[in-house]
């Protein structure tokens, strides 16, 4: 009732304003007429002009502001069809029916908001909402599923807030009458000095106001989420309802057309439903929405819960009997015909998605930008920028999504606070990169590189690098290596990319860890080994047995094999320090310690070489990434005939070659001189004697072919005649003993034989008639042939 009372008060106030406006307009016209009459009678003085100016300035004409949903800049109305600009008789009847329905609804439900039945379209013509929908089948498989279709629609839509968030624009606003009389503005008599002083004072006020607003913003930042919304539950919004049943939809759900997100009907963000419609009917919700939409029953065929506007048999989810089928007595208005044209989306527009290929969505402390594929030369399709403040001036982080990159770059995350960049790659990179985190692309700086271990033969999954260390993680290796950490010393010379291979960083320490090898006993399976290169020591730690709490350890003093005088050094017991949980006899022997030491020296050399190769690989990866970032090469599908220039050129070349080959084959098949020209040397010019000989051979060969064909037809004719005579003679000899079946077979054979003989006789007679004509025609062609014509004319 309060909503209805406010609505009535607004209408009464609007009527009072209109009446006051008409009275003021009449008074103004009367005053102007009096002024004109007075002007004719007497001459106006300066005082009279000032009085007239004062009276006219006191007249106020109310201005009705209209914010159209569509502007001439966005839509060219002149190019729209007639159905957009006018209404047919059936549409006018439908609008009258909608008005009648709306009046009955307002009378029965005065406390509810007015129905959204016939808004204005692009041409500001009222149209029934159900006729604005026209189901259209599109040739794109991506639009057959609701999620991809909703995403496609949301990319095309741009949200524009309504002038009044509490109600949509349904009726046309009254146009403002232009002012008929205008007064020349008076001279500006203000002092410039006073204006400058006023500007300075305003600047100080603005500075104080900005400071106050900043403090106010900081104060409100904490209580921002807790602030109540004054318009909560009153705003107008529309969304899509998908009913269960068809296409294996298990349950009802909502779709937000602006975000393409789906919500359950039990979601608390949806406070209620006033009405819903499709391309066939319009329904009003008669259920109480005190518990939001959680208790609503979406049985549109139930007139108690959903009041429908048009009669008909389209009643979802309600079982209909023969007597329950609705009969429309409104001249078949239920057969709604849409006034809009069918949706036509070209492949270019479907790929472009957003208007002009770009869309910007502003969020609270964030901005989302979208681009169409291949619109940016670097493959950028989306960018999400997060800000620290509400004015969106201080950037916190940036996320960029890429597509169709040849280097398989998929996502780039930039943290502006820490200056850390993280690149994410899809499988297929030449170096099997998965993640690359870095602050600088210069070598020997802080970075983390992750790999797809299944694409590498060494099983490397992660590499962490700092100016003085490098750590690698492995998985699935045959030697069970899982971890390698390298400490580097200070470099003597300055690093350059060209001298990196010849000037590696000095290795101080190498630490390697291994997984458990079940094929070896725990006391012989090394868990960790440390190569102390600068101290010339090697430390080993073995795996711990399950029934032990400590593990065996061993340390070797790595000395050179010869001393300064060239004498060979003998291994002594003090070169190996051992701690064994369960001492064994063979480990105490010097031979075992010597063999272990020699093996560890080889492993140390191998590890140092692998470290050097890892450093080179990092340099090659950085060089490759730099080149890829400069080139921005994009991959193009072979099926994309518009952009794939190489495929297009190759296809055109193949089509041209096939066409030329086809023409060559056709010429070869139709060239009657080709079998005879092959006998001559290639590229040699014909002589007169050769031309005459070619002509005679061609005619002689054609004549012989005609004779052979006539002989073949004659031979078949004689053969069929002889066989028929033999069959007749056989019949005369065995006529008395033949059965009726044999006589039927004989008569059938005779009929078929006579048919074949007759056909052969006709072919032979026709061949005898056409053979001389074909011979003369070939002779004429030979005389007209450009290869023989000039030479044969000399002999005629």
Automatic annotation (TrEMBL):
Question: Which residue positions does the secretion signal occupy?
Answer: none
UniProt keyword annotation of Oxidoreductase present: no
- Coiled-coil residue windows: 192-227
Q: Which GO terms describe its cellular component?
A: cytoskeleton; motile cilium
> Any idea where the Dynein regulatory complex subunit 7 C-terminal domain is?
684-791
Which GO BP terms, alphabetically? Answer: flagellated sperm motility
Instruction: Spell out the InterPro entries in the cross-references.
Output: CEPT76/DRC7_peptidase-like_dom (IPR056290), DRC7/lobo (IPR033551), DRC7_C (IPR056292), MORN_DRC7 (IPR056291)
Coarsely, its chief localization is: cytoplasm
**Claim: Ribonucleoprotein is one of the keywords in the record:** no
Please give one Pfam family short name: DRC7_C
- Disordered: annotated segments: 1-30
What is the annotated localization of this protein? Cytoplasm, Cytoskeleton
Question: What are the protein's UniProt keywords?
Answer: Coiled coil, Cytoplasm, Cytoskeleton
Task: Provide the Dynein regulatory complex subunit 7 MORN domain boundaries.
Answer: 355-637
List, for all copies, the residue spans of the domain called CEP76/DRC7 peptidase-like. 236-309
Q: Where is the composition biased (Basic and acidic residues)?
A: 17-30
| Protein's name according to its UniProt entry | Dynein regulatory complex subunit 7
What species was this sequence derived from? Answer: Aotus nancymaae
Give the gene name.
DRC7
């Amino acid at each position: 009732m309060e909503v209805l009372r406010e609505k009535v008060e607004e209408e009464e106030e609007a009527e009072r304003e209109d009446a006051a406006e008409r009275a003021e307009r009449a008074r103004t016209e009367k005053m102007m007429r009096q002024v004109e009459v007075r002007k004719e009678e007497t001459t106006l003085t300066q005082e009279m002009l000032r009085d007239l100016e004062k009276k006219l300035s006191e007249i106020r004409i109310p201005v009705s502001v209209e914010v159209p949903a569509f502007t001439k800049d966005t839509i060219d109305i002149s190019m729209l069809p007639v159905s957009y600009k006018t209404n047919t008789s059936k549409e006018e009847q439908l609008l009258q029916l909608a008005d009648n329905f709306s009046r009955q609804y307002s009378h029965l439900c005065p406390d509810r908001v007015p129905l959204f039945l016939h808004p204005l379209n692009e041409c500001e013509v009222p149209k029934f909402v159900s006729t604005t929908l026209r189901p259209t089948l599109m040739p794109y498989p991506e639009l057959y599923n609701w999620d991809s279709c909703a995403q496609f629609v949301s990319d095309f839509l741009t949200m524009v807030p309504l002038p009044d968030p509490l109600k949509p624009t349904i009726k046309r606003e009254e146009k403002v009458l232009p002012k008929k009389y205008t007064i020349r503005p008076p001279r500006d008599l203000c002092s410039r000095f006073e204006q400058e002083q006023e500007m300075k004072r305003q600047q100080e006020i603005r500075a104080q106001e900005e400071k106050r607003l900043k403090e106010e913003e900081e104060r409100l930042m904490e209580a921002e989420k807790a602030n109540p919304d004054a318009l909560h539950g009153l705003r107008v919004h529309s969304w899509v309802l998908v009913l269960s049943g068809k296409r294996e939809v298990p349950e009802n759900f909502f779709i937000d057309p602006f975000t393409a997100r789906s919500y359950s009907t039990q979601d608390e963000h949806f406070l209620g439903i006033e009405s819903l419609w499709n391309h066939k009917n319009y329904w009003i919700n008669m259920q109480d929405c005190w518990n939001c939409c959680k208790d609503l029953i979406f049985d549109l065929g139930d007139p108690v819960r959903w009041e429908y506007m048009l009669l008909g048999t389209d009643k979802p989810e309600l079982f209909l009997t023969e007597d329950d089928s609705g009969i429309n007595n409104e001249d078949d208005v239920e057969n709604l015909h849409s006034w809009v044209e069918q949706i036509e989306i070209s492949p270019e527009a479907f790929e472009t998605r957003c208007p002009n290929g770009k869309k910007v969505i502003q969020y609270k402390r964030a901005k989302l930008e979208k681009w169409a594929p291949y619109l940016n030369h670097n493959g950028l399709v989306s960018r999400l920028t997060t800000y620290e403040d509400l004015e969106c001036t201080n950037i916190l982080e940036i996320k960029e999504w890429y597509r169709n990159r040849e280097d398989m770059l998929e996502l780039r995350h930039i943290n502006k606070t820490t200056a850390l960049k993280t690149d994410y790659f899809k499988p297929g990179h030449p170096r099997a990169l998965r993640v690359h985190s870095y602050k600088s692309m210069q070598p020997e700086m802080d970075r983390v590189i992750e790999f797809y271990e299944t694409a590498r033969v060494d099983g490397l999954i992660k590499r962490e690098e700092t100016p003085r260390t490098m750590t690698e993680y492995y998985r699935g290796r045959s030697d069970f290596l899982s971890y390698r950490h390298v400490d580097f010393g200070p470099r003597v010379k300055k690093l350059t990319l060209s001298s990196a291979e010849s000037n590696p960083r000095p290795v101080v320490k190498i630490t390697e860890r291994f997984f458990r090898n079940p094929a070896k006993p725990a006391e012989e399976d090394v868990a960790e080994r440390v190569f102390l290169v600068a101290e010339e020591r090697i430390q080993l730690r073995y795996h711990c047995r399950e029934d032990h709490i400590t593990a065996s350890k061993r340390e070797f003093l790595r000395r050179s094999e010869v001393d300064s005088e060239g004498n060979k050094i003998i291994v002594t017991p003090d070169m190996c320090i051992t701690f064994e949980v369960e001492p064994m006899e063979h480990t105490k022997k010097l031979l075992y310690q010597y063999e272990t030491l020699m093996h560890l020296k080889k492993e140390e050399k191998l590890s140092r070489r692998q470290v050097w190769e890892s450093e080179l690989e990092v340099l090659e990866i950085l060089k490759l990434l730099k080149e890829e970032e400069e080139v921005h090469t994009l991959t193009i599908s072979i099926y994309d005939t518009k952009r794939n220039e190489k495929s297009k050129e190759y296809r055109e070349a193949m089509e041209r070659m096939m066409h030329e080959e086809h023409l060559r084959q056709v010429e070869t098949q139709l060239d009657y001189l080709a079998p005879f020209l092959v006998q001559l040397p290639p590229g040699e010019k014909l002589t007169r004697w050769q031309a005459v000989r070619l002509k005679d051979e061609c005619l002689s060969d054609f004549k012989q072919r005609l004779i052979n064909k006539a002989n073949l037809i004659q031979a078949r004719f004689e053969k069929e005649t002889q066989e028929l005579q033999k069959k007749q003679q056989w019949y005369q000899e065995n006529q008395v003993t033949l059965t009726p079946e044999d006589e039927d077979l004989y008569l059938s054979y005779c009929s078929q034989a006579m048919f074949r003989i007759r056909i052969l006789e006709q072919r032979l007679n026709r061949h005898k008639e056409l053979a001389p004509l074909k011979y003369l025609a070939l002779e004429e062609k030979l005389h007209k042939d450009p290869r023989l014509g000039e030479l044969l004319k000399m002999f005629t």
